[in-house]
Amino acid sequence: MIPQWISAFASRGAGLGCAALFVIALAASILSAQAGPTITIRILDGKTGEPIKPTNLLIRVNHVEEPNNEGLKLNDDYTATAVLSPGATLLSVQGAYDSSTQVYVNCDADTGKEGGELKWYSIADILKTGIVTTNLCYKGRYQHKLNISPVPGEFVFFVRSNSWHDALAH
After folding, report:
1. N or C: at which end does the chain have fewer Cβ atoms within 10 angstroms?
2. What local confidence, expressed as pLDDT, does residue 122 receive?
3. 152-161 burial by CB neighbour count: b if 16+ within 10 A, else e?
């Protein structure tokens, strides 16, 4: 027979355990409710179409110049996953290399002349159909690798490394 004080302690402990689990579940649901959309990002060489593994990405949302990489995870398969803020509606991405000291030139803009302009893309469109950006760095040799179809939830963009021409322009 179990002494009464052990039985009372065990039932109170079980109640405390249930309460703790409830608080943890509530906190997890609040945190997941605060997370915004999740997108997959692929960065490709503008000349060859080969995947590039950047050392970092600069994620910007809603025309804010300051990058916000809090929800960014660089994956081993040359993709990145970005959990964006709940109010995010527009996205701009740049890739970094050389231990994040250099920023790739995005091929969807003016290929870097005069610093280039950031292009902004609808997050709703990325989630619904996916986006593959234009490639203004392409000169025609690797067409078969550059025909990429968009996938819902995926943002694919083309880049090139900075050249000595870019250094002279700045």
Report:
1. N
2. 97
3. eebbbbbbbb
- Write out the CATH class of domain 36-169: mainly beta
Helix, strand, coil % (nearest 5) of the chain? 30, 25, 45
Residue 5 has pLDDT above 80, yes or no: no
Q: In 3D, which of 163, 20, 23, 34 has the Cα closest to residue 102? A: 163
Distance CA 47, CA 106 (A): 12
86 is written with which tokens? 């709940």
* d(C-alpha 31, C-alpha 56), whole Å: 25
Predicted TM-score (pTM) of the model is 0.73
144: pLDDT strictly greater than 70 = no
The separation between the first and the last C-alpha atoms of the chain, rounded to the nearest angstrom, is 85
Instruction: Output DSSP code: residue 113.
Output: G
Q: Are 123 and 91 in contact (CB under 8 A)?
A: yes
